[in-house]
Design goal:
heterodimer; A: 294 residues; mainly alpha; 0% strand; disordered N terminus; B: 273 residues; alpha/beta; 2 domains; 6-stranded mixed beta sheet; globular
Amino acid sequence: MADDNHRPEAPPTASDDARPAGTFEFEIEQSHKWYRRPEVLVPVILVVLGLSLLAVVEAPSGRFRSQFTPGRDVSFGWDYFFHLVPQMLRGLYTTARATVLGFLIAASLGLVMALLRRSERPYVSLPAAFVIEFIRSTPILVQMFFAQVLVRATPWLTLNPIVILFIVVGIHYATYASEAYRAGINSVPKGQWEASIALNLDPATKWTRIIIPQAVPNVLPTLGNYLVAAFKDVPIGDAVLSTAGVLFFANTIRADDFRPVEPYLLIGVGFLLVSLPAAWLVRRLEESIEYERD
Amino acid sequence: MSTNVTETDRTDLSDKGAASVRFRAVDKAFGSLTVLENLHLDVEPGERVVIIGPSGSGKTTILRVTMTLEHIDAGTIQVGGQHLYHEETSAGSLKAASERHIRKVRSNIGMVFQHFNLFPHMSAIENVMLAPVKVHGTSREEAQHLGMELLAKVGLAEHANHTPGQLSGGQKQRVAIARALATQPSVMLFDEVTSALDPELVGDVLKVLRDIAEEGKTTMMLVTHEMGFAREIADRILMFDKGRVVESGPPSQVLDDPQEDRTRSFLGAVAEH
């Protein structure tokens, strides 16, 4: 409980000096919008910038080839290891790009799914719940195979493997994101919903001004964790759909040179280099997002 | 976000004056627990009714069903002569009201909560301005002017840019009152508005309530445990127990010369601490 006597003095504001009642030359500060808070804004801008870069820049070539013909010597060699780095980065770039595009789908579709599942109409919420649970409880590996054969079996549908990949990742993680959104929405205190009724707010205002601004900051760290998880699932697409990501790179090199240790070790390093900073960003986000509740 | 106000939803923010509230045969139960039983109650325009009673007696539920936070099981409620939960058909009978109808009648009602329920991500002035701008289609300038006037009225003009987290409990409650007043309701509901406050902060909030009562622009229904305040402000006091009105009358009668045993024992228990 707050206490008048122990409150730090409020910073002086424009109207602190005594002013005759009725004249309000008052500057309204617009600093409390959740999406304008720097600790929310900075990571979001970074991610969005990264995403758009990845989305805009042309996909790199999917042809990987080593320059060494080492004969029968397949023991570990640092020279060999380092000369693969540029090609690994190319593969990693393709993987990251699919992750980002997929996650754009996941983050937006997830919110829609969460709202559908919360619907008061059972003919909306029940199918939504079924679809979400179904996708969430089947493995992404199986879904990827299924998407592939589905596209092959549909004559009028031709999709680039990379497109299939990020659609599958997008839908799969949308179901996880929807559960995160749902938890975030449920974490908004009951009093906020009641105040919205008492002020007679229309549903659009209630959701966009009251509920989502309080729910989404709580959800961002979870979404960040799912982004990292999705990044680690995308190489499954290389195995199933032959997209030209990091795993495809390593497989190609192994097939050409019979030297598997270096490329696989290298993609491990590649993942580490991306996942560590991402995990740090998420943790920072978690720490900074703490709303002062009423 | 553009405002989603259609012409019919728009309610005039000019003075509507106080409105009556009429409960007829209202029932409300939570599962097997009956909270309101065949409640008949008339609150006249501008009247100040204080509801007292032990906890669990259903007194808060009266306010909550009037605000449509809980829906009633049976009976009717009329606010300013309009049915809240029902619409009249052309044949003159009643049918369950549409969401649209409820919204229209509900715009005459304002409520202040025990735990304030301010929007924590908005400053005090933004809290106050939201409903006038979004629900009533008031311009931002006008709403800001009105909002600053109301914050000044509750003594918090200099805190307009502070978020609820920067305010004390008493200040939060006064912002919440200003927010409720901003829609110029004809009926104001106050649900134990001082119960969550430190004792030394109660006075400021009660002073604001007195001011509102003096202006007399709105009907007031209050649930409170502040018996001294109830005596001072109430036109009528209702003693509530087990979903029924046990006793009703002016403060001098109910508080000083209660006719019912239940009222006497309740007042005795309250006086003891």
